Amino acid sequence: MKVQIVEVGPRDGLQNEKEHVSTAAKIQLIDKLVAAGLHRVEASSFVNPKWIPQLADAEEVLKGITWSSDVTYSALVPNVRGMERAKASGLTEIALFMSASETHNKKNINKTMEETFPVLREVAREALALGMRVRGYVSTVFGCPYEGAVPIDNSRRVTHELLEMGVFEVSLGDTIGVATPKQVREVMEKIVKDTATERLAGHFHDTRGTGLANVAAALDVGIRTFDSSIGGLGGCPYAPGAAGNISTEDLVYMLNGMDWDTGVNLERLLEAGAFIQEELGRELPSKVLKAHLAAVKA
Amino acid sequence: MKVQIVEVGPRDGLQNEKEHVSTAAKIQLIDKLVAAGLHRVEASSFVNPKWIPQLADAEEVLKGITWSSDVTYSALVPNVRGMERAKASGLTEIALFMSASETHNKKNINKTMEETFPVLREVAREALALGMRVRGYVSTVFGCPYEGAVPIDNSRRVTHELLEMGVFEVSLGDTIGVATPKQVREVMEKIVKDTATERLAGHFHDTRGTGLANVAAALDVGIRTFDSSIGGLGGCPYAPGAAGNISTEDLVYMLNGMDWDTGVNLERLLEAGAFIQEELGRELPSKVLKAHLAAVKA
């Protein structure tokens, strides 16, 4: 039985790291992730570099990597200007994003949710016309840093709109890492009522330690695609110092132990984790990486 | 619906910390844990101080704490000599321990499993005669650092023997933190065939990030008692630098979110976590503690 992992470390991870990471290191990281067997990698973002200076080198990164034919590389695209850059980059997949809560969407995108739909629709139309695959992210599905609880109907609505635009997969995000397995089950069960599980992905953050427990709950509901970040790279913009995305190493370890086939070689994945930890010069949150490096040292 | 938490930080946590912790700080920690609403606290160990010098002050700790009448304090007792110390301490509960794997038992207790049973039986007999409650730990249920996989029948056998001795509850331990939810479900389902779930507890380590996912799986099987350590205190003697017990803060956060009643006040618990982190002078693994301290700072 297969589970797909979407590696978001080079984007969601690195955009939340304060330490500067060189373009060369990003390129090496992506190539190492692919060498470990990851088939889907979110490589960077075409968001305005004014907002995310960490990923201003998106073009250089995508030029530098060794493109593998059985890997789908992707990047975040916020608007038509971003789409211009994506078009020139040679990518075959892009990702759209918006929030399920009004305040987070407004603060993040500077538009209301209603104003965001047509912008995304235009980007999707253009990407689809170019033969690209379009992924969608819904943020704050399990809680908003400003509003607290988010009605499930908001997430259903956004999911529905994204699918209507031609998005092939919607990633449901616990942006601030507040979800617990009970909530994941409840939310996912409601969303899979209108949407096939193959169209959904779980995007969990481990800010409160529940990330893998939430993955296990989503597996129970039938979700088979999960986003994760090498080393648990990144953090939480709403709680600087706290943990961000679930770690790819920890996710692969758990899935291996549960007899899910991810196609990822854990040993090689740990090399990628050790590499980027060394580059950043700080201990990353991945527990499997910690245990591995401790065992190597012992 | 209630879940019981057995706080093992002052014992399982501190016995694995290299940094010296003063007796006064241990006493303060235990009193803070009780103030947060924990009703079961493993306060120390009567293992020979030659082996665990970190807990050589068991008597002083137990003399110093403010005994609360609705809290059960406990300590580890390995043999009749330990039992003498426990008797003098005023405790109403002790805990026995052994492994489900021969090699770990031999290295840890210096006896075969068969040789261990009569020793524990004698301690249990004495404790029960004094009106004490006796808890039992089974180590390496989900994997052994020396033997790898451990047959479930070993754990069933040890569980059965402990219950025969009059133990009221058997805590099934993932000593090296290798378990995944699938294995937890499989092992627990087999063990609950002979043993009522009320007699069992889950003791998970988070060495590979799966700790809370394993708790959620054990909850599904009907387990309602879990061991955890404030701050995620402690570590893994087999992988120095790796994480140890699951964190009490993270456990309480997840259980709260799943509408389980633990009786614990998370705010006060975080005070206890912040206190012992400050004492140790190192960042503890608890993610909820990290997120809390980051939010306080922001």
Description:
Chains A, B: GO terms for molecular function: lyase activity. Chains A, B: Residues 3-270 form the Pyruvate carboxyltransferase domain. Chains A, B: This is Hydroxymethylglutaryl-CoA lyase. Chains A, B: It comes from Brevibacillus choshinensis. 2 copies of one chain form a homodimer. Chain A has helices at 9-13, 23-35, 58-64, 80-89, 102-109, 113-129, 152-164, 181-194, 211-221, 248-257, 266-280, 287-297; strands spanning 4-7, 40-45, 72-76, 93-99, 133-139, 169-174, 200-204, 225-228. In chain A, α4 (80-89) links the parallel β3 and β4. The longest helix of chain A has 17 residues, at 113-129. Chain A has 298 residues and is an alpha/beta fold. The first copy, chain A, has an 8-stranded parallel beta barrel, surrounded by 6 helices. Chains A and B meet through α8, α9, α10 and α12 of A and α8, α9, α10 and α12 of B.
Oligomer: homodimer
Report helical residue fraction of chain A.
40-55%
| Second CATH tier, the architecture of chain A | Alpha-Beta Barrel
Task: Give the count of structural domains of chain A.
Answer: 1
H/E element string of chain A? EHHEHEHEHHEHEHEHEHHH
Radius of gyration of chain A: 18 Å
Tell me about the biggest sheet of chain A? Answer: 8 strands, parallel, barrel
- Strand residue percentage of chain A: 5-15%
Q: What is the name of the CATH class of chain A?
A: Alpha Beta
Give the helix/strand class of chain A. Answer: alpha/beta
Uncertain segments of chain A are none
Task: Tell me the overall shape of chain A.
Answer: globular
Strand order of the largest sheet of chain A: 1-2-3-4-5-6-7-8
Mean pLDDT of chain A: 96
Continuous helix count of chain A: 12
Chain pair with largest interface: A-B, 42 and 42 residues
Give me the count of strands of chain A.
Answer: 8
Q: CATH homologous superfamily of chain A? A: Aldolase class I
**CATH fold-level name of chain A:** TIM Barrel
End-to-end separation of chain A in angstroms reads 35 Å
